[in-house]
Design brief:
The chain has about 650 residues and is α/β, with parallel strands linked by helices.
């Protein structure tokens, strides 16, 4: 390249890209190089916000619930650009992008020149020599936008399998920087299969990065209402509620392989193929709290010395019967007194020995680790964590969960299990935080948020984006994703009625038209209201910036109310009619506010405002509408038509 012959504008652009690349990767960071690479910020600058429309028939729940969650039907790069008000407001980006298997990843070659094209493109086959570079070109600007959506202390958790694991890891190191990598979770998606010549692929991965590791917080998993419900107090124990726990641990042990004689029945109980999890002295002490004495005796069972009732080993058969009867009477009396010892023999005294697990001693949540598998295959100290079944679930669980909600025939062969998604959300999204999933698929993330909100009394919100399979003309954001969310919200599962999770969401369709002043001015009233509701943003209110929509047609100007009971008014019929805030129009607005008992602060959208007042917050159309979505006609980051090509 001959730099001396390059135009000044091209040289400036080249230097800026060089500096931005170094800044993004860090002083000593990496920058990936692949065929067709363009700096992600250069791609983002070309992406224009799109017009959108709220689909009222596909939205679910009462208005006060709809405003909390959003499901967008549209291409996710354009959707994230349009969701400008959430830039820097998301606590957790949790997503499951296409894995580039030859069956699930589509690429539109037009994106190489114009990333605004809404079409998904064709499936990229396994034998496409450029499939990896296409996948990287697809993911790079989207990851860049996901990072922009995060709060300073936000976290991204992105699912992947072995096919693109290494390339995604390097790309994440470049965009988020290596020092912000929180971990790579290895979760067991299935059990081993019979494969004669290859390793059995039983795990997948979740790459977890922070926008800033110094500001991100990794929490424990909250104990759910379901987990709490397993605790009770059958014996009126004064210490705390408790649940039954296993007295054994996984695997055999010579030192902890012996039988224990029941004081109620005289029967001997051994740990089988497992071992007693507590020290022998501790178990003996607990057993003797039933009012009987024990001694160590070899009973010839090829195990270690058993814990037998004192005197039983040397007694005759008749004497043994008396010893057992006496012990049973003492133990039964102790059983009737309640507040049983930690080791007990079932609520009637006739079961195998088990132990109490006290609720007050169980950690409120489990400490996250990088290897997630079934509890049955994990640590024996299961009472110290909150997951009583599987910790992460398996792929087949996800498919079965989807089958149960919407029925079979959805054509999803792999679905992330709810347990995996719920666990990630609990660890990296605060109870009132926002979760964004730009590849929403069947809606597992939204389902998980709704279920967690009910189980733990949380108030998390979700934003889902899904484009669906346009090859078949089926935007399954509506036919599948929205259907799943609606069914779990209402409890109307395909397999039968369940307890409703409650909540709601707005269904927003992303249009093909780009947003500019001309497009805004051409909107009809209801279209304008849709745009205002989805784009309104007041930095002072932050997460409470959403507006509650009022039923259409009830008012001439009033269309929404904010959390402070302040009205929002639109002086607008269509782009062809005058839009003036005059004294006469303001009198109509004031009357609507008074009739609806709203605060005397008026948020008014109009093209011009000949009449002003101290209580009026005026939003000029189209300027303030464009400003709400980060579009500045004078210095717009998305409107660089005059960028000079190098």
């Amino acid at each position: 390249m001959n730099y001396e012959e390059m135009p000044k504008a091209a040289l400036v652009k080249l230097l800026m890209e060089h500096d931005e690349t170094r800044a993004a990767a860090g002083k000593d960071g990496i920058v990936m190089s692949y065929a067709g690479r363009t700096a992600p910020w250069q791609i983002i600058k070309q992406v224009k916000p799109k017009l959108c429309q709220i689909n009222k028939s596909a939205s679910v729940g009462p208005e006060q619930e709809q405003i909390l969650n959003e499901l967008w039907d549209g291409e996710n790069l354009s959707a994230m650009t349009t969701l400008y008000k959430y830039r820097g407001q998301v606590d957790l980006v949790l997503t499951d992008p296409p894995y580039n298997t030859g069956e699930d990843f589509r690429y539109n070659d037009k994106w190489d020149k114009d990333p605004n094209d809404p079409d998904l493109g064709e499936l990229v086959p396994k034998d496409d020599g450029s499939r990896h570079s296409k996948w990287l070109r697809f993911m790079t600007p989207r990851l860049w936008m996901m990072r922009a959506m995060l709060k300073p202390g936000g976290v991204i958790a992105i699912c992947i399998d072995h096919r693109e694991l290494y390339r995604l890891g390097m790309l994440m190191d470049e965009i988020f920087r290596e020092e912000n990598r929180l971990g790579i979770i290895n979760w067991q998606k299935t059990t081993a299969k019979n494969q004669s010549s290859k390793l059995s692929l039983t795990t997948e991965y979740v790459l977890v990065y922070a926008k800033s590791s110094e500001r991100a917080k990794t929490g424990a998993v909250e104990r759910s209402a379901l987990a709490d419900a397993r605790f009770g107090n059958a014996d009126n124990d004064l210490f705390s509620d408790w649940k039954q726990g296993d007295l054994t641990g996984k695997g055999a042990s010579k030192l902890a392989n012996y039988a224990i004689q029941s004081p109620f029945t005289g029967e001997f109980h051994d740990p089988g193929e497992r071992h007693w999890a507590n020290k022998r002295a501790q178990i003996k002490e607990w057993a003797q709290e039933w009012g009987v004495e024990y001694e160590d005796v070899d009973i010839g069972d090829s195990r270690g010395k058993a814990l037998t009732l004192k005197g039983w080993a040397t007694a005759t058969e008749a004497q043994r019967t008396k010893i057992i009867d006496k012990a049973a009477a003492v133990a039964k009396k102790r059983l009737d007194q309640n507040q049983w010892p930690v080791l007990y023999w079932g609520v009637d005294g006739n079961q195998k020995p088990v132990r109490k697990v006290y609720k007050s001693l169980v950690r409120q949540g489990g400490v996250p680790t990088t290897f997630w598998l079934d509890d049955d295959e994990g640590p024996t100290d299961v009472e110290a964590v909150s997951w009583l079944r599987k910790m992460s679930g398996r792929s087949r669980d996800g498919v079965e969960e989807l089958d149960a909600v919407v029925g079979k025939g959805h054509n999803f062969e792999t679905v992330k299990p709810l347990r995996l998604i719920k666990k990630i959300i609990q660890i990296w999204c605060k109870p009132d935080g926002i979760v964004l999933d730009p590849f929403a698929g069947s809606g597992t993330t939204g389902h998980a948020v709704l279920e967690l909100n009910q189980e733990t009394n949380a108030k998390r919100r979700f934003i889902l984006i899904e484009q669906g399979n346009t090859d078949k003309g089926d935007h399954y954001a509506k036919t599948l994703t929205a259907d799943r969310l609606k069914r779990v919200i209402t409890g109307n599962w395909k397999t039968g009625q369940r307890d409703p999770l409650g909540g709601g969401f707005r269904f927003v369709s992303l249009k093909r038209e780009k947003i500019d002043a001309q497009a805004v001015n051409a909107l009809a009233r209801e279209e304008m209201i849709d745009l205002l509701l989805t784009s309104y943003w007041d930095k002072a209110e932050k997460a409470k910036s959403y507006l509650k929509r009022l039923p259409a047609g009830e008012h001439k100007h009033l269309f929404a109310v904010n959390s402070k009971d302040e009205g929002f008014y639109l002086v607008w019929t269509s782009g062809e009619q005058p839009s003036l805030l005059t004294r006469a129009v303001f009198k109509e607005i004031a009357k609507e506010a008074n009739d609806n008992k709203l605060a005397s602060r008026y948020h008014v959208y109009a093209a011009m405002a000949p009449y002003t007042g101290t209580d009026i917050e005026f939003y000029k159309i189209p300027d303030r509408v464009l400003e709400h979505i980060g579009f500045n006609t004078r210095a717009d980051a998305y409107n660089n038509e005059d960028v000079v090509d190098a």
